[in-house]
Every structure is written in structure tokens, then in C-alpha cells.
Design goal:
Length: about 130
């Protein structure tokens, strides 16, 4: 007589329904528990108002190129002469905050010289613009 191999018994199929039920019950519990707040004893109508604490004036942007040349508005200035022009440029634009947009390959001494001239011109806030890493 021929002997046949018996097929290996399969594991019974485990259903995910009980797990899903438990997850939904937990979700409902936390939704209800998180939204319940004790009521106030006194009914008060709050006044309406508007707060505008954002800066209405955008910072003035100065661009430093790879070779160190400085853009003041639409005019380009040699880095050695930028100190003479920055004072007049800041006074005419009435800028209190300046953003420096510098090329990554720009010489550091150009950026530092620019920041020193901005300080002398009376700028209160200098921001160096960067791109997010990643």
C-alpha cells in the first residue's frame, strides 16, 4: 500500500476584529474624556477685540553675492565701498530691521563688515536668512 504524506496543519486564521473593537473603544473613551470640562459657575459674555502684534514693517533685505558684492535695493555696490552707501540707504528707507541674504560662498569678512556698518547706521535688528537643513 502507498503511504501519502499528511498535509501540515494550518494555523487557524486569527481575526483582527477584536483588536479593532478595542482600539475603537479606546478612541471613543479618550475623545469623551478629553472634551469634558467642568462648567463655569458664572455666565460671562466676553468682550470682542482684535490684537495685531505682528510687525507691520517687513525687514529691509540686503543681498551679498558670492564674490562679496552687496546689493542695496536695485543697485550693486563694491564691498569696499558698501560702508559709505549703507548709512544713506538705511536713512532713506527708515529701516529698523534688516535681513541679510548672503550666498553660502560669500566671504565672511564681507558679511561681518556689512553687519558692522549696519550697527553704525543704527539698525536695531539684523537677521541672516538661511535655508532649512535637510
Amino acid at each position: 500500500m502507498i503511504e501519502f504524506d499528511e498535509p501540515t496543519p494550518r494555523r487557524p486564521f486569527e481575526t483582527m476584529v477584536p483588536l479593532i473593537n478595542v482600539v475603537f473603544l479606546l478612541l471613543i473613551f479618550f475623545l469623551l474624556a478629553g472634551t469634558m470640562q467642568p462648567g463655569e459657575d458664572v455666565d460671562v459674555t466676553l468682550p470682542s477685540g482684535q490684537v495685531d502684534d505682528r510687525d507691520t514693517q517687513q525687514p529691509l533685505t540686503i543681498i551679498v553675492e558670492k564674490d562679496g558684492f552687496v546689493w542695496l535695493g536695485k543697485s550693486v555696490v563694491d564691498p569696499a565701498l558698501s560702508g559709505y552707501r549703507i548709512g544713506d540707504y538705511i536713512k532713506t528707507s527708515n529701516a529698523v530691521a534688516v535681513a541679510i541674504k548672503s550666498d553660502a560662498q560669500a566671504p565672511a569678512e564681507s558679511v561681518l563688515r556689512l553687519m558692522e556698518e549696519l550697527r553704525k547706521a543704527g539698525v536695531k535688528q539684523v537677521t541672516i536668512l538661511t535655508e532649512p537643513a535637510g
